[in-house]
Amino acid sequence: MRIALLAHLRHPIAPPFAGGLEAYTWHLAEGLTARGHDVTLFASGDSDRRGRLDPVIPVHHEATFPGLEHRGDAGLKAHVDAGYAAACDRIAAGGFDVLHNNSLSRLPLERRRTALVPTVTSLHVPPYDALRWFVHESLTPGHRITATSQAHARGWWPDGVPPGVSVLPNGIDPATWPFQAQGDGSAVWCGRIARVKGPHHAIAAARRAGLPLTLFGPIEEPDYWGAEVAPHLGGPIRYGGHCDGAALSQEVGRASVFLFTPCWDEPFGLVAVEAMACGLPVAGFAMGAAAEVVGEAGRLVPVGDEAALASAIGAALAIPRAVPRARVLRLFTRERWLERCEELYAQARAGLSPMPAPNPPIVEKK
């Protein structure tokens, strides 16, 4: 198939990834290409050019409109809308078999556009007012929508998930997150360093539990970093920087437990899956999709409870490292994810009704 992938524009679609959405889109392009599809990535012009790239805007917008993503800035909105409108026009005229929309923009959701190109839209964030109505009004026989977890889908449709919407869990290549049979007794945390990701809670819990902790990831909120993270670094608490995938997998794999501290309705939690693939059990907050992702591979506690999180670290350390690895191999592999994408593309192209069978649950009942 000729597939257009439309990306979010805040950061480049290139390693080292700013976050899970960038990793998702990059691996989707790479994986579909490896499966023989003709893929064009529509993203910022400073994204990875090893594949076919059609720039939506010249550079990612965090470089030209820093810190304005959630501020309702009129200049940023006009800049991004102009880029997406032109890109959607090129996609409509480009002879593509399907569009996989990962943009978080309302423009690809318009029915006049989905009537021209079969579309699969993957939602990557909790519902918010600027997008909610457009998502709800966009379902047509040639448009499929995915959420990353059952909790995520319920957040968008609390009164019942409609036909045409399905759960598409993220997937990883387990070979790039190799299993390590033994840890060194330390804890590790990864992600965007921002308040909603909760690294300050991880620091407090690690100190309570008496474990060394290393934080990895880009500093997204400098004020938050300066006030609530940096002052607590030193001794057993360190910042390891923003590493690429190969280096990060080695750093994560040598630890003994992964701290997962979402303070928002986390739609999925790709960082937890990556750590689990290395063999790390998880201690974290039961927020968003965490329970669906972690399952028997960790221990979860109420969000913000640092004392309970410290206790959960001890309980998680008792889980054999083979358990989290096996959960990833069973539920969250890249091949499983890509096969499901191809099924959705076929449904969108044919304008089929959704499959009658329910989505396979992520949380397995014993």
From TrEMBL:
Protein name listed in UniProt: Phosphatidyl-myo-inositol mannosyltransferase
InterPro entries recorded: Glyco_trans_4-like_N
Residue ranges annotated for the Glycosyltransferase subfamily 4-like N-terminal domain, each copy included: 19-175
Keyword flag Glycosyltransferase: yes
Keywords annotated in UniProt: Glycosyltransferase, Transferase
Superkingdom of this protein's organism: Bacteria
GO MF annotation, one: glycosyltransferase activity
Record keyword Transmembrane helix present: no
Organism per entry: Methylorubrum aminovorans
